[in-house]
Design a protein that fits this description.
Layout: E1 6-8, E2 25-27, H1 31-38, H2 45-57, E3 58-59, H3 68-82, E4 86-92, E5 99-105, E6 111-112, E7 122-125, E8 131-134, H4 139-152, H5 157-163, H6 171-179, H7 183-195, E9 199-200, E10 203-207, E11 214-218, H8 230-236
Antiparallel strand pairs: 1-2, 2-3, 4-5, 6-9, 7-8, 10-11
Helix pairs in contact: 5-6
């Protein structure tokens, strides 16, 4: 067996949110990795994909501390380089209103970077003049939140906000604080995550195969973006199955 080859990644976060991380590398997937991919479903994706990256696929960073934007970028990189750059998306044409399936080239999706002057934690002044410090949402936060939802049997958006607060309070204290805030202040805190969205733009231009009309379509996340069907891969290579 030869030495594993890793590729240095230009992550959309520019590595700004991470302490003591100056290089992140990834390798191509192997047959042994596909077992984890094959066992993925919508319920276990977060943990399974994190385990996949932890098992020697990613080097230079704990995948749990990746921002969601960087994780999406890595997911798309693996899809393009290990399987296929073509991703089938069902559209409804904005001109003829016909339903069609078009092939989106993942490699042509826009890459969204964090601003070079981004700093973390980021201070937000609320309407009551309180200053709260926030950080970007991480993969580990998402895994923790899904465990919370499964345990409690309900969503709690205040819990998600509390996860990204940077202070010396515990989660219960943070949630209690958030419960007493006005909704506009909560909106300011949520807007921080929206302002610093990064990763890959999940929108793409298309040409309708029925009428030739042009438009833009969302590129929905599905598990087959990571692990496409054999037919999709074969078509990208010029073969049929």
């Amino acid at each position: 067996m030869g030495e594993e080859v890793f590729t240095k990644l230009d992550l959309p976060s520019r590595l700004i949110p991470y302490r003591d991380v100056d290089c992140v590398e990834v390798r191509m997937l192997k047959g042994k990795d596909e077992k984890l991919l094959g066992d993925m479903n919508a319920l276990n994706f977060e943990k399974r994909f994190n385990t996949l990256l932890s098992h020697g696929v990613l080097k230079g960073i704990d995948p749990t501390i990746l921002t969601i934007g960087d994780r999406v970028y890595i997911m798309v990189w693996l899809a393009i380089n290990c399987y296929s750059a073509d991703y089938p998306v069902e559209i409804i044409c904005s001109e003829c209103f016909g339903k069609s399936t078009v092939s989106i080239e993942l490699g042509k999706l826009d890459k969204l970077y964090l601003p070079k002057d981004y700093k973390e934690p980021h201070e937000i002044e609320l309407l009551n003049k309180d200053i709260v410090k926030l950080r970007l949402y991480r993969v580990g936060d998402q895994i923790q939140y899904l465990d919370y939802v499964q345990d409690k049997g309900e969503d709690n958006l205040l819990y998600k906000l509390a996860q990204v607060m940077v202070d010396d309070k515990n989660m219960l204290e943070r949630i209690k604080y958030l419960e007493e805030l006005d909704t506009k202040s909560l909106g300011l805190m949520r807007a921080f995550q929206e302002k610093y969205v990064h990763g890959v733009s999940l929108e793409a231009a298309y040409v309708c195969p029925k009428c030739g009309g042009k438009g833009v379509t969302p590129v929905p996340f599905r598990l087959d973006m990571v692990f496409p069907a054999g037919e999709t891969i074969a078509k990208s290579l010029g073969h049929s199955v």
